[in-house]
Design brief:
With 483 residues, this protein is mainly β. The chain contains four helices and 40 strands.
Length: 483
């Protein structure tokens, strides 16, 4: 209490000096105040130290005074002047509020005093009534002890803790002061008797979310109450919402992209699409996975049939210019064979290779007699040199019709006949043989027609390009003779 009195004396002494106007004048050196004064007021200023306000007394603000002009300023530079008529009100700093701290009621025990509620100010070190805020003495708050021995009450039995409520060890209390004693009669605090709550937990591993199901973070769950915790010691409770991890979007962290691919005769194609890789595997028409793909569109990308054509591969031809015939150095016909394959015009795959004789030598069974006379081939020298396959027909063998005189010569089609085959008649090109070919029997009909019955030898010429390579490798000449 001596220190408290000393503080109050010093405060009143300083406040009195300032209040009387004596102040404490400090002459500022020319290096600062005069320089500032030259910019502001122009004279050197005297500094008057203020006094801080407390919760009991008012205080006074710092100020500067010009001894020559008797003017007051709130700054050292003499810029902010305080009018003489305002100075008294400006100079005073109001009292500050008490710094109250509540000391709550404490019961007296059998061997210790207690006290009622009171407020204590750390600034002025005084005591106050909590309701009226009026000053009181500390002595008035004291609740004196009874100066008697403890009277121990009945035993409160042991209560085990659960996952919901704390338990406690067995204890007794003084019926007068409520002092706690353990079952061995030793005084203690209630906190010494408490048995904390206990959870019997098991660990639940984290579950990754998918686009169809939510996931969960790793956590511990109590087998008794079902509460969830972030730690095994159950100090960080979790709500169900805090455990759940939201479902993923189909596009979360990417998806699988399939570029458009056209179908072939070997494998299926597909449209451009994206596949969700987060659980559902659903296909989408856009990268953001907002438009599910109608999978019926895949039907338009199924494989199609091979377009098989009987084609002689270049490496199997005897001669690129005349693939089916060969003449030796003496221009004599040689019999050669050519390898043909069923070849797909889409993918180039081959199947069913077969060897086909060349047309260097024709025999009678290549043709069907149809009431016509088959003459000898044109020959030169000892062996026939191919120029034309010649048929001689007597004019008398022609049949009279409404439009003239006709005959039909049927030839057996070669194995290389296909949709690419062509023929010429009198230098007129025909690319479609369907009207003169009987595919079921493998024969072709050559229509011999004369408007009038020939009276002189007449020659008709057919040329054939069987494999569509623009080389007319077989020629047939029909000669109509007269008797």
């Amino acid at each position: 209490m001596k220190l408290k009195a000393l503080k109050q004396f010093a405060f009143l002494f300083i406040a009195g000096l300032v209040g009387m106007g004596a102040g404490m004048a400090i002459m500022w050196g020319t290096h600062s105040a005069s320089a500032a004064g030259e910019v502001g007021h122009g004279h050197e200023l005297e500094f008057h130290q203020g006094v801080e306000a407390t919760c009991e007394t008012t205080g006074y603000k710092d100020y500067w005074e010009c001894p020559e002009c008797h003017l007051y300023f709130s700054d050292a530079d003499g810029i902010n002047e305080i009018k003489a008529e305002d100075f008294a009100a400006w100079h005073v700093a109001p009292k500050i509020n008490h710094d109250f701290h509540l000391h709550e009621y404490k019961n007296a025990t059998c061997d210790h005093d207690g006290h009622r509620d009171y407020l204590y100010c750390d600034q002025c070190e005084k005591y106050f009534d909590p309701k009226t805020k009026t000053e009181i003495t500390y002595e008035s708050t004291i609740i004196h002890n009874t100066n008697r021995s403890h009277e121990i009450g009945a035993l409160v039995p042991y209560e085990p803790a659960t996952c919901e409520y704390e338990g406690h060890y067995a204890y007794r209390q003084c019926v007068h002061c409520d002092q706690y004693f353990n079952e061995y009669g030793i005084a203690c605090n209630y906190s010494d008797l408490v048995i904390p709550t206990v959870h019997h937990v098991h660990y639940e591993a984290a579950q990754a979310p998918t686009c169809e199901h939510t996931g969960s973070r790793a956590y511990y769950v109590c087998d008794d109450c079902g509460r969830k915790f972030a730690d095994e010691n159950c100090t960080e409770p979790l709500t169900d919402d805090e455990v759940v991890v939201a479902k993923l979007n189909h596009w979360s962290e990417g998806n699988q992209h399939f570029a458009r691919k056209e179908a072939t005769c070997l494998e299926d194609g597909n449209p451009e699409y994206w596949v969700c890789i987060h659980g559902c595997g659903q296909k989408f028409a856009d990268q953001a996975c907002t438009r599910p793909l109608d999978e019926s569109i895949f039907e338009a990308y199924k494989t199609y049939d091979h377009d098989w054509q009987m084609i002689c591969l270049p490496e199997n031809r005897v001669d690129d210019a005349v693939p089916y015939r060969y003449l030796d150095a003496e221009n004599k016909v040689k019999s050669v064979n050519v390898m043909y394959y069923q070849t797909c015009t889409h993918c180039g795959e081959h199947q069913g290779g077969q060897t086909v004789p060349s047309f260097a030598k024709l025999v009678n069974n290549n043709f069907n007699r149809n009431n016509v006379t088959i003459g000898d081939y044109e020959t030169t020298g000892a062996e026939r040199i191919i120029d034309y396959d010649v048929f001689k027909i007597s004019a008398s063998a022609l049949t009279a019709t409404e439009s003239g005189y006709d005959a039909v010569i049927k030839i057996t089609l070669p194995g290389t006949y296909s949709q690419y085959s062509q023929y010429k008649f009198d230098d007129v090109l025909f690319e479609d043989m369907s009207n003169v070919v009987d595919n079921d029997n493998g024969v072709m009909s050559l229509q011999v027609h004369c408007d009038t019955l020939p009276t002189a030898e007449t020659v008709l010429i057919w040329q054939f390009n069987w494999d569509g390579d623009d080389v007319f490798e077989q020629k047939i000449k029909v000669v109509i003779t007269v008797a």
